[in-house]
């Protein structure tokens, strides 16, 4: 269903902007950039270099940053390095764990109790490279690295089993767990979102591969707003689907472009990382990579941090995004192998 999105506000202004949210809407690349980029902010141990990372989240304290990093390259299959890292607000490494447990860390989430959920997509390895009985799982760790729960069968599963190339995980205020699954963008691929109760019992599975309403193509990222609505970053379809807890579609937004990562803060500000427009997805036309910032309430896009390197074909800029309590933005980059920080300009 094609919907019109009205950007409304409680105001006595003489006119209101009405913008169309549709697959054919003009590219939103012209919003101001109120941020400055800080590179080299997080300090790895001596001798260790950044690998690809799409997984970044903020600790329960609102200041510390969690990252799941791919062991200096693009997977951890042959590495003994810990892949889950915690940095304080000054970029000092304060904790690390996960050595030998995660093949391709793809998403990370910190729940209300401070537990750390890590998605092992196993999607950066060829099928023949995946060790038997590993990958395609979601792991829940305590803040000190104790394994508390694993969702999905080791080595993965499809259809009534799960998971196959999971992308993202998030927990709701009542403890329900949502997992976005399906990293491939081709006919027959898994493309669904699964809902579990707080104990890991499957409650519902929703979605199938496709371009229509109720279908998904690479559901790559998840976020939840203050109303409890679930935002699904349907990356292969260049849209965000907003659904309720039972997956009833409430709205469909295209104005944030091709979503690889999403974050919604306590004020319902929506941050969307687009790491593929104009490079991996040339048909996307004039849209360019970067982080678009706006309202999760109205859908209005108010700011844009452009990718400094817009040349194809490599994925650049942030794929994962998180925002601390002070409003600093953190972008996790796959192609550039970096964790950048974006601070408000003075």
UniProtKB/TrEMBL annotation:
Enumerate the transmembrane spans.
none
Listed A to Z, the keywords are: Glycoprotein, Repeat, Signal
Work out whether the entry's keyword set contains Signal: yes
Q: What highest taxon heads this organism's lineage? A: Bacteria
Signal sequence bounds: 1-19
**NHL repeat ranges?**
207-246
Against PROSITE patterns, the record matches this protein to: NHL (PS51125)
Q: What is this protein called?
A: SMP-30/Gluconolactonase/LRE-like region domain-containing protein
């Amino acid at each position: 269903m094609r919907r019109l999105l009205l950007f409304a506000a409680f105001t006595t202004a003489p006119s209101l902007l009405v913008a169309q949210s549709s697959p054919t809407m003009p590219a939103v690349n012209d919003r101001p950039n109120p941020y400055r980029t800080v590179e080299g902010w997080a300090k790895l141990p001596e001798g260790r270099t950044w690998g690809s990372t799409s997984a970044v989240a903020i600790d329960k304290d609102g200041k510390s940053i969690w990252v799941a990093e791919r062991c200096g390259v693009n997977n951890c299959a042959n590495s003994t390095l810990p892949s889950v890292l915690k940095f304080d607000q000054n970029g000092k490494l304060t904790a690390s764990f996960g050595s030998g447990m995660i093949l391709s860390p793809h998403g990370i989430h910190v729940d209300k109790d401070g537990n750390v959920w890590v998605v092992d997509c196993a999607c950066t390895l060829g099928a023949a490279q995946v060790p038997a009985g590993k990958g395609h799982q979601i792991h829940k760790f305590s803040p000190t690295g104790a394994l508390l729960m694993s969702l999905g069968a080791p080595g993965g599963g499809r259809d009534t089993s799960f998971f196959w190339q999971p992308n993202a995980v998030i927990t709701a205020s009542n403890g329900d767990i949502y997992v976005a699954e399906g990293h491939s963008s081709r006919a027959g691929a898994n493309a669904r979102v699964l809902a579990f109760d707080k104990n890991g019992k499957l409650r519902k599975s929703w979605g199938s591969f496709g371009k229509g309403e109720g279908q998904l193509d690479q559901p790559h990222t998840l976020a939840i707003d203050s109303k409890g609505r679930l935002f699904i970053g349907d990356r292969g379809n260049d849209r965000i689907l907003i659904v309720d807890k039972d997956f009833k579609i409430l709205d469909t937004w295209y104005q944030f472009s091709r979503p690889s990562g999403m974050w919604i803060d306590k004020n319902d500000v929506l941050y969307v990382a687009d790491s593929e427009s104009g490079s991996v997805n040339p048909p996307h036309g004039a849209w360019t990579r970067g982080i678009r910032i706006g309202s999760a309430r109205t859908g209005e896009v108010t700011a844009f941090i452009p990718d400094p390197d817009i040349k194809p074909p490599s994925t650049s800029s942030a794929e994962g995004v998180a925002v601390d309590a002070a409003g600093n933005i953190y972008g996790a980059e796959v192609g550039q192998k970096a964790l950048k920080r974006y601070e408000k300009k003075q």
